[in-house]
Amino acid sequence: MQNLRGLKIAAIVLLTLAAACTPKAAMDQYESFDATQFSQPTQIDNEWFPLIPGTQLTFEGFTSSQGEQVPHQVIFTVTDLVKEIDGINNVVAWERDFSDGRLVEAELVFFAQADDGTVWSLGQYPEEYENGKIIDNPVWIHGIEEAQAGIFMQGDPQVGSESYSQGWGPAVEYTDRGQVSQDGQPVCVPFDCYEDILVIDETSLLEPDAHQLKYYAMGIGNIRVSWTGDDQTQETLELTDYIQLGSEAMAEVRAEALKLEASAYANSEDVYGKTKPATPAASMPAQSSSTGGKAEIVVYMADLGENALTELDFVAETAAAGGKMVSLPNNGDELDPPPENDPHVLFSVPVLSDTPYRCWVHLKVGAPKGKSQANVVWIQVSGAQDGAGNAAYQPGSASYLTAQGPTTEGWTWVSCDGEMGSTQSLISFNTAGEITVRLQAGAEGVGFDQFVLSSAQFLEEPPSAAIVEK
Q: What is the pTM (predicted TM-score) of this model?
């Protein structure tokens, strides 16, 4: 999508001179970046900008300039590639920009999530085309030519907070900034309708009167782009499709992204040429501390950070793994299943491809009240296939598994479809690597402390121990 890069040489000259004269002011133009605060950088599960490998979002709309309206399409794909920048592994996103059906820009963008849930952008490599030829490639990479990483999405975005740098690339006039302008807005786009939308107002130091508005939905990411102010290129885009790619499509995406990277090395020796090559995530060492191995995965809710929870709380519980569970009060009200964005927890784990798994949730059935039996959790897993090999259970979709416990209060292990031993609840994954798990409360008052994804030990029978060793 359009970045707000300034086009006036005089402005960038003045900016550079000002930075040279007032180093403290220059520092204020970009964010303080601490590379030690990225223990699991490729597990990007920020509620407003989750990056699940294989996710592809398609946007349709128009670009208006000087009274002319041109059809515009943007396809944003999360690859399964990882690129190291400044010692930090980054998720690689591949974006294509079409104007009136013609490819006018292709871009690699690099994202990493800090331990506080903030998603950072550590660089971009865009190629702009005209008649099929490269006419510009304004690359910036953190740590090279004075470029600095910027915040793409805050861990806890709040209306009224100060604006923040989205990246600082003075060599290519990249000075974009963002600020939370609205929240709680209902928005409908062609793909779906959403409640509680977050709106980020983006501008740049060089074009402060031009504003791009980006609308974000929880669990999905960006769903709409519009404009306000003196933006000479008025862009309007809306989400029309949101899919999880299969293994064959992902292989094509990987090949195309690596082809673009090869072009980056050839055409940007002074900047991109100083970076390490991107590699498939499956070839990288697993960075998740919440797993007991790729074949037998055990996650304790107590090990998750507060940013992993949405409208849920940690509750002290002596019988729970780690001494606490995740739960919510029981007011006797009903909760809606996905795709409604009701209370949930989100985390990532690494899995094997083409391997049958069964998942289990350790539930604490609460006291019933009103319409709630306090005994249900709904499960969604990115990149998953059902027993027939069909894509299923994707976060943000209406497809999900159900872990429904008995009505008797207390702790119990429940399979993720509620039908213990049924082959219909076996799931597999089309690609190896990190996937995102979403556990959504299906009833008020329910609690849970462990999630198990098993390909062998608990494939047929539930765990017998109250706490499964990792």
A: 0.63
